[in-house]
Amino acid sequence: MAQIMAESVGTPKLIPHEMATYTRDLTAHPIAGWLNFQPLWQEICRTDPDLFD
Fold it and tell me: Is the pTM for the entire model greater than 0.85?
């Protein structure tokens, strides 16, 4: 699926395995996911405060 999405906007460029591993190790931590979700959560709470009632 990701390959199809990437190809829909152009020709994907492969990156070296070491670079992919470094990026994964830097960003694939649960805290990073939590921090990146916070702006979305704040927007949901602001625009739909009764969502979970």
Answer: no
